[in-house]
Amino acid sequence: MKISDVKLTVVGVPRHTGFVNKHVIVEIMTDEGVTGIGEMSDFSHLPKYAVDVVDLENVLKSMLRGQNPFDLTLINNVLSENYPAVMYYYEKGSFIRNGIDAALHDLCAKYLHVSVAELLGGRYQEKIKVCYPIFRHRFVEEVEENLAVVRKRLQEGFDVFRLYVGKNVDADEAFLARVAEEFGSKVKIKSIDFSHLLDWKETLRIVKRLAKYDFEMIESPAVRNDFEGLRQFRLKVDHPVSEHVWDFRQQYEMIRHDSVDIFNISPIFIGGISAARKAAAAAEVAGKACLLGTTQELSIGTAAMAHLGSSLINLTYTSDPTGPKLYTDDIVKKPVQYEQGYLLVPDRGLPGLGMELDWERIERLRVPDLSWGNVSVHQLQDRTS
Ligand code: LMR
Ligand code: MG
User: Fold this and answer.
1) Contacts of the segment 178-186: beta carbons below 8 A, 24+ positions apart
2) Dihedral sign of CA atoms 295, 298, 301, 302 in order
3) Can you tell me the distance from the alpha carbon of 264 to that of 241, in angstroms, rounded to the nearest whole number?
4) How deeply is 178 buried, as exposed, middle or buried, from its count of CB atoms within 10 A (0-12, 13-18, 19+)?
């Protein structure tokens, strides 16, 4: 079997918060008539320049045409040479590699009539506990609307939440106090997430202030790639510390400095299912736990994470992918399913990722390119409109 063509389609999908995220749908065709689908999820992250999708499609065609899709290691190596890791969390090259790697997994599994989880070592679990995000407060007035989000999502079965913090600590504190008061033990806060916005000492001061409220872990409490700062922070707090993996060098440094307790791993930020499996294996070897992070993918990207998570043994903390619940629309006929706060792994009987494109929906969401609208750095950091 040989790859015969590659097609990219750009969509812009609004969230319930009003923020619109741009994603690229990937189709990889073969001479045997089997097509794999993937998703380059969420290019709406800093830095504020746009990938030229027409050029990208042409370049990917020249790289992939004629390759056997089962040569995943070889193809990923070519992709890494062309889109190298650069020690940056939101590196767009990782998003590109991720979309191709997902489509290749879908393609190979479909060809074999198995689900992607079975390609990855089989199903260790059939569902993955996830939490719903509460985006960063900038104003105390936003506390009320975020409490309404908790009320609504709790009714849908989401009883674990994570909270982005660090820009208005009065609002962060007011929110945590009101959650404890209104919901008590019915709602759990998984993490407070500083998104690398602050120096670790500044974070430490805020954590001391918020420590009277219940939360399970602290995420991204130091500036990016400050491995020693993370370690200093980790040794001074009781909570476990988690950090995203965006480069194997960075993960190695975090292991070497014993910087974290939990690795937050997501295919989008490390460049695919294959790379994410390596990161999870490295974590396992280092005796560290994992959780699945997210950029907030659509259903194809989320399904890829469900299959990946299904096969991981050290996925011991609550994970983050809830994209299909955050967006007002999707690109597949049957979106991934959530039940009682769990992401369900698509059924074993469905080949590949278990997702089918819905072209009616896609036409509605299609946009010409990845060009930027008028959004501020704050809006991009805080995912607000
Ligand atoms: C999102 O898009 O909501 C997340 O990727 C935000 C983040 O960077 O953690
Ligand atoms: Mg985070």
Assistant:
1) 178/143, 178/147, 179/147, 179/150, 179/213, 180/213, 180/214, 182/147, 182/150, 183/150, 183/154, 186/154, 186/159
2) positive
3) 10
4) middle
Report which protein residue has its CA nearest ligand 1's atom 2.
Answer: 295
pLDDT at 183: 98
Asked whether the beta carbons of 265 and 291 are under 8 A apart, the reply is: yes
Residues of the chain with pLDDT under 50: none
pLDDT score recorded for residue 384: 84
Residue 181 confidence (pLDDT): 98
Nearest ligand, CA 193: 2
ipTM of the complex: 0.91
Instruction: Please say whether the structural domain 121-349 has been given the CATH code 3.20.20.120.
Output: yes
Distance 53 CA to ligand 2 centre (A): 27
Domain boundaries, given as residue ranges, for the chain: 3-117+368-382, 121-349
Q: Which ligand is nearest to the CA of 322?
A: 1
Query: For position 385, what pLDDT does the model report?
Result: 81
What angle, 0 to 180 degrees and rounded to 10, lies between the N-to-C axes of helices 72-82 and 53-64?
140
Show the ligand 1 pocket: residues with CB < 6 angstroms.
42, 195, 295-296, 383
81-139 residue pLDDT tens = 999 999 999 999 999 999 999 999 999 999 999 999 999 999 999 999 999 999 999 99
Domain 3-117+368-382 -> CATH class: alpha beta
Mutate which of 195, 383, 384 for ligand 1 pocket (most atoms within 8 A of beta carbon): 383
CA distance to 36, 100, 269, 285, per residue, from 278 (Å)? 22, 17, 13, 10
Atom nearest to 42 CA in ligand 1: 2
The one catalytic residue in 49, 88, 132, 164 is 164
Q: Which residues are annotated as a binding site?
A: 15, 42, 45, 89, 193, 219, 244, 294-295, 383
Residues in the chain: 385
Burial of 40 by CB count in 10 Å (0-12 exposed, 13-18 middle, 19+ buried)?
buried
* Residue located nearest, by CA, to atom 7 of ligand 1: 295
